[in-house]
Amino acid sequence: MSILNLALKSLNNRKTTALLTIFSIAVSVALLLGVERLRVEARNSFTSTVSGTDLVVGARSSPLNLLLYSVFHMGNATNNVTWQTYQELADNDAVAWTIPIALGDSHRGYRVIGTSGDMFTHYRYGDDQTLSFKSGEPFSDLFDVVLGSEVAATLGYDLGQKIVLSHGLESAALQQHDDKPFQVAGILEPTGTPMDRALMISLEGIEALHIDWVNGAAPRPMLAVSAEKVRQMSLEPSSITAYFVGLKSRIAAFRYQRAVNDYAPEALTAILPGVALGELWQLVGSAEKALQVISVMVLVACLVGMLTTILTSLNERRREMSILRSVGARPWHIFALMITESMIYGVAGTALGFAILYGLLFAIQPVLQTSLGLHIAVALPGTFELVLALVIIGCATVLGAIPAWRAYRNSLSDGLTVRL
Amino acid sequence: MPVIDLSNVIFGWGSAKPVLDIPELVVRRGEKVFIRGPSGSGKTTLLGLLGGVLTPSAGHVRVLGTELNSLTAVQRDHFRARHVGFIFQMFNLIPYLSVLDNVTLPLSFASDRLLAVQHSGRSPQEEARRLLGHLGLTDPTLLERPVTGLSIGQQQRVASARALIGSPELVIADEPTSALDFDTRSAFIQLLFSECEAAGSTLLFVSHDRSLESLFDRCLSLQDINRAVGEVH
Ligand SMILES: Nc1ncnc2c1ncn2[C@@H]1O[C@H](COP(=O)(O)OP(=O)(O)OP(=O)(O)O)[C@@H](O)[C@H]1O
Ligand SMILES: [Mg+2]
Q: How many whole angstroms separate alpha carbon B193 and alpha carbon B188?
């Protein structure tokens, strides 16, 4: 009978404690792996919020501020970009496409983005994905609106629904654009990006809403322009808030950035969103570090728990060790037996941990995808996972050397005296 | 060449005065020796010295011509595994192994004894069944069961089969019959004798049961050979 066999049978004899120990290790391994997986996926999904966009251009401000309001729709632009400037810079030879965005209105706490149809053809997020429609289609009429998935789900809107947009962003005391209601033309699939929380209308729609407004105040009734009349008017926007740029070749990115930053007629800032997002993640990403530290702590606690379990079992197993020695087991056999035991804990715990993780991933992947738009790939374990598994098994084995050494010492001092 | 040759052996537990002080003890090959003595007189301690589990503070312990004192701890372990079969006073089976696994256990630690079994043309399991059969343990379902389900007497017989498997040169039994009834005890002694004779093994047998004395070649009283005044309980 091999040492391994003996260790297995011995563990089998202490099934309950053994299984509990293995299970606790497994849970902590799954936790550690899961946190790591989520962390990586969250970072990936975060930094690829605007993956297809090479540059974002807005009025002169800090890169972070520009990123926050243009991509995450948080905070406000310090200034606008005039339509003329936009036209001029979008005409640059290096530019393949642009997506203008005009912010400033909202609907029940969700931001309204005025944009062009290019949003639905050129905007890319995640792994080169485009915005796709759960139902309906891009806006075509002046008063069409497209809803992000969360907006539609939370407010319970469906295609054809008439909604009224509000002027400004604060939820209290908003003035309503109730003279020009919009109709839901399309609802997007979840993307896991801020787009889920946005409503999109055409730039002309934005213009139409504000055509009769003077200095940010609603028109007096006699000066108001009705929804029918506005259709006949020229609705060329006078300004936008920012625009996204796709270049023909990424090599031109720095050149275009310089061209924008040095643009004389207007003070502008161009940022490379990938870089800015990475910087922002550094800022918000400290929570992930905390999570990581916690899951490592949990694992350490579980390994110490294993150590305690083995050490406690040593006393009741002193007799077993003496018997083994009396039938010819050498002290190093006893040592090997104990080490093997903790290795079994390590291996079984890690394997079960992987099983739990993958089981959970398979179970929640569709849920995460549909509800959060967070795509978690259920891939084979990567180098990180394998290294981690080896480290855990290694730690369990090294820790196991402590009780193994004690058992070895005991077996030497006890000799064949069977103690009870 | 004597199987056991002790000269001027002194052994004490810790700093206390010696438990054993034996000027001479010689056991020849194939002898069956009965050892008696009051509880606490040092019988088990003596067997530990002979098995190379304990080392004397002075004197020589020669077993099968090997000076045990000159061996390292590892070598002594090796020596014991190869040459000595132990039957203990009590509680000496591995609880989580089946009867058969318990009996064949020494073979995984001593290749010589495994070879001896293979030499007889039997597999370890067959050999275990044969020995157990002689001891009246034949029920096949019983043999596959964990030993915890056995009576004390049955356990003692399993332990004996384990000591005998692989024909060790020296069989050391420490009160193996204390839990056996009269009939089983007779069968047990018979097996012990016939196995030892078949293998040419030497038998050291410690017991309080003086009715067995007459069956042995020789009877030793520990108090007679031990000069140390044991702390008798
Ligand atoms: N591991 C030990 N550590 C310290 N002292 C011990 C140890 N084992 C035995 N002794 C002491 O050595 C003496 C002899 O013990 P031993 O077990 O050899 O007696 P014994 O003759 O086998 O008794 P019994 O017939 O009750 O089995 C006793 O006084 C005992 O207290
Ligand atoms: Mg004793």
A: 9
